[in-house]
């Protein structure tokens, strides 16, 4: 029997910290004999560094961040593992009001279709004639935001490096950066897109859930050293978080979850605005709400499983954009940054379906589908990329070679 454990866990004030916050607030951590101290941070760089130096035993972490650390791409790189995902989706792309009006003038419908928004944005860039590059903010160089933004732009014929300047801004500062005119566009997790709309400085033009449906976003990150030294504590933490994810995923709990997240020491954002984010009813501008299926998935569709194919897709984007050299060894390091073996070990005592595989073909499911699992009842998908491409982790060399030919036209 494990004695009670005290652990410090870092997080950023984002919708996808919900599972961590619910584990603390609803008693799931205490049920596993864990005293979990959640510490709110201001930037992903702080999260990365405080995990590396041992201030945090675990953290709410950008899904590509452990991979980058294991590849030696980050300051204070230390071996890290991601034994659990913290949900699927949750990001959006928001533009300033002047840019939105330019895009609308070029025919953008405003229905959040990424191809439609991309066509309008490409037309705006062409009309400007290269006089000024778009200034676009993401939350960190090694983030799903950076990669999905670049993927979307390139697939729409926009070169993210020639046609734009991509900079890093912490998530809570995005609304003010848009309103002040310091950036034209951002890709950020909720609720900061919706905050920008509610404050009048931004308009949402597309969402992660439509660029790549049911795609990875955040993980639980821990150092490999801590994971190896504390397997019982880590397993207990994963069970607490899984039970919290089950609670967060139930629609009847959405209002209570929004109220909890809205508290000043958590997200400090209006509960009604958070409820729209949780239910996918996004106010894309002050006078329009668009319902987005699978906008932020907390539990269903193996939302907490650390798929190694997700890790390899992120790695493919690191290679694509010149952050990493491609080699069989680097691909193996990226794949093994995600640890489904730890996830299975921790959740074995629970009556939950566990995927039978560690990797899957990404983008292949056009509709929900039952898949092989340790117990009945696991449904995955749809998981399509908006441009119809497929990522087969067994054919990563060909995928990387092919995407290097499509950096934007």
Molecular structure report:
- It is found in: Endomembrane system.
- This is Nitrate transporter.
- Keywords: Cell inner membrane, Cell membrane, Membrane, Transport.
- There is one protein chain.
- The protein has two domains: 5-86 and 218-267 and 298-347, Periplasmic binding protein-like II (D-Maltodextrin-Binding Protein, domain 2); 91-211, D-Maltodextrin-Binding Protein, domain 2, CATH 3.40.190.
- Helix content is 39%, strand content 18%.
- The chain is built from 18 helices and 16 strands.
- The strands form five sheets. The chain has a five-stranded mixed beta sheet, sandwiched between helices.
- α12 (231-249) crosses α17 (340-347).
- The longest helix has 19 residues, at 231-249.
- 55% of the residues are buried.
* Average predicted local confidence, pLDDT: 96
Helix content: 25-40%
Main sheet, how many strands, which sense, barrel?
Answer: 5 strands, mixed
Give me the CATH superfamily of the largest domain: Periplasmic binding protein-like II
Low-confidence stretches: none
What's the number of structural domains? 2
User: Can you count the beta strands?
Assistant: 16
For the record, give the distance between the C-alpha atoms at the N and C termini, rounded to a whole number: 59 Å
- Radius of gyration, Cα only, in angstroms? 20 Å
Query: CATH topology of the largest domain, which one?
Result: D-Maltodextrin-Binding Protein, domain 2
Under CATH at level 1, the class of the largest domain stands as: Alpha Beta
What general form does the structure show? globular
**Proportion of residues in extended strands:** 15-25%
Continuous helix count: 18
How are the strands ordered across the major sheet? 2-1-3-11-4
The structure class reads alpha/beta
InterPro entries: NrtA/CpmA_ABC-bd_dom (IPR044527)
Protein name: Nitrate transporter
Organism: Paramesorhizobium deserti
Main location: membrane
